[in-house]
Description:
Layout: E1 2-4, H1 7-17, E2 21-25, H2 31-42, E3 47-51, H3 71-81, E4 85-87, H4 91-94, H5 113-116, H6 120-135, E5 139-143, H7 147-159, E6 165-169, H8 189-194, H9 197-210, H10 215-228, E7 232-240, E8 254-262, E9 265-273
Parallel strand pairs: 1-4, 2-3, 2-5, 3-4, 5-6
Antiparallel strand pairs: 7-8, 8-9
Helix pairs in contact: 6-7, 9-10
Amino acid sequence: MKLARTLPDLHAALAELGPVGLVPTMGALHLGHLSLVAAARQAGRPVAASIFVNPLQFGPHEDLARYPRDEAGDLAQLRQAGCDLVWLPDVATMYPPEAASTITVGGPATLWEGAARPGHFAGVATVVAKLFGQVRPHAAYFGEKDWQQVQVIRRFTADFLLQVQIVPVPTVREADGLALSSRNRFLTPAERQAAPALYAALTEAAAAIGGGAAVDASLETAKGHVIAAGMQPDYLALVGAETLEPLERFTRPARLIAAARLGSVRLLDNVAVG
């Protein structure tokens, strides 16, 4: 497995490997990330992963300093998963002092996480665009746990005519349904026991709505279950799967999305409806 920490090293490695499938990450890897590597390997081309904790997507009161970092552990996992190249840029490489441009996003970036975390998706889009420019992948792989993020990346990739195939990969879950996340390690034992209630509530609501139940009533019931489990919902909504616009009645394709706070951790999850 090749490691690159500078752009010349990256370009030299890519010259040897040829076009790659890219798995962008912020490190603190788990089985969800490794499922992206596995999906990229199935395409039959070399696989590159990036590890970069992107400061541009963190707000002024968010947990940039607290975000978990384990480079040695991450590299060991990527090597075992069959990754061919790991790109490890520093902040100065990604955001040199003379840099003066960022990406402005709208459409699916406007609501939900976009409203709760102003500037977040602009930071995501900017760093992903930079990674695409640096690596020039034929495809890039993203987890469906961050459903809105996937739609934002799809939108700006299409808008800027970038020749990168965006490949969403299904969410990897614990046996009790909790979506894998690097931040799950911050849950206390009691919080970890309560956390699967979010997925359970979404699954129950999706089945009800898909079966013809009223959307408003189903969402209120789901919120009640989440609150009863000790979580504080930021939002729980039925949305158009690609546009992220709220739906008053079920029409395909649709997604239930949710964010809820549990102790110091903000859980995100989503399920398909119908």
